[in-house]
Amino acid sequence: MITTLSELQVYDKSLLPIADKVLAAERLSFKEGMQLFNTKDIPTVARLADIVRERKVGKKAYFVHSLRLSQTNICYVGCTFCGFQRKFGEEGVWDYELSDVWEYIKTHGHPELTEVHISSGHHPKKDWQYYLDLTAGLTERGLQVKAWTAAEIHHFTKITKPRMSYKEVLSELKDAGLVAMPGGGAEIFAERVRKKIAKNKVNSEGWLEVHRVAHNLGIRTNATMLYGHIETLEERLDHMMQLRNLQDETAGFFSFIPLAFQPDNNDLAKELKKTEFTTGLDDLRNLAIARIILDNFDHIKGYWIMITPELTQISLSAGVSDIDGTIKDERIAHASGAITELGMTEASLIKLIKNVGRVPVKRDALYNELQVY
Ligand code: V47
């Protein structure tokens, strides 16, 4: 492991004080974070991130045997970056009743499966009991339910009668079996951007408050950030800083997952006339800076669905310690043009990690280690 400045070979000498701080495990300021975003010396940024990663997890790299469940794509929110959402009666719409979900689990389930990660829309008509029964039914089938973004929790408070609080909604879901929450719906916290791309979704204050309440109830969660559209680099860093502050308060986040904008079949891409994916360099820089800035997060996740398995493998040397999982049936990124497979086998994930000299660790939804390969 690199421990001295001379071993680091820093090309951009203005980064030396930052490198010093990272080697001494000291926290970086906003200004220093911006210096990392503005330097052309990405190899140094990646190496610094790798030092932080190694300090946290050593040679281990984590994955989960998971299944993505998108029980509906009906959504009334209308985020402009989303190609997944449909209205009733539109082409390509689907909407599972509970019996359809149990069939889906029968078809896709198998003994290795541990986590079901639910990713779907804000349905205008489904009642509160549906979500409790869905969570309970999956739990009864022996699966760990990682579900409901903060945006959905906010939506649930609106469909309960009388209107329940975040705490009440989350407590009932926890009693039904919910073990962890995904990090979706965070997008970019800066209201300037949020107003343009996700104006009907929970605001950033609400998103953070749902996670605060979840953490206080003992429900661990993740956090995402959608980047590569109209946000500035300052707004990316501000997003990370807000997460770092909340993590200082609650220590409830497991991992941070940057989500690279997928530029097809959505209004935002059309408006921006954007047809190209984020660059590999930007993806890598973003992951590395997240690893350095979010010193209180255990994991930075490289989401192979959106940045490809190849770049995810490289990102293991730039701060990433978790590569999500088998997934099997991803629908949100693919609705917006993702070019990756819908899922990956466990064997491929293990190979991806082993080929760069890391030790694959199969984990469950709560990061308990199930098997070390
Ligand atoms: O909230 C939607 C994003 C999220 C696009 O917690 C898009 O482990 C890029 O949250 N381009 C859902 N992103 C997925 C998600 C997630 C993914 C992987 C792991 C975890 C975790 C969570 O997908 C949405 C939104 O931010 N999204 N459309 C798009 N065109």
Question: How would you characterize the overall build of this protein?
Answer:
The chain has 373 residues and is of the alpha/beta class. The strands form two sheets. A seven-stranded parallel β-sheet has the order 2-3-4-5-6-7-8. The protein has a four-stranded mixed β-sheet with strand order 9-1-10-11, with helices on one face. The model has no long low-confidence stretch (mean pLDDT 97). The protein has helices at residues 5-8, 16-23, 30-38, 42-57, 98-108, 128-140, 150-159, 166-176, 191-197, 204-216, 233-250, 267-272, 280-293, 304-307, 309-315, 332-335, 346-354, and strands spanning 60-64, 66-69, 115-118, 144-146, 178-181, 220-227, 253-260, 299-300, 322-325, 359-363, 369-372. The chain has a single domain (61-372), classed as Aldolase class I (TIM Barrel), CATH 3.20.20.70. Ligand V47 binds at residues 81-83, 119, 149, 182-185, 187, 222, 224, 226, 257, 259, 261-262, 266, 303, 306, 324, 332-333, 336.
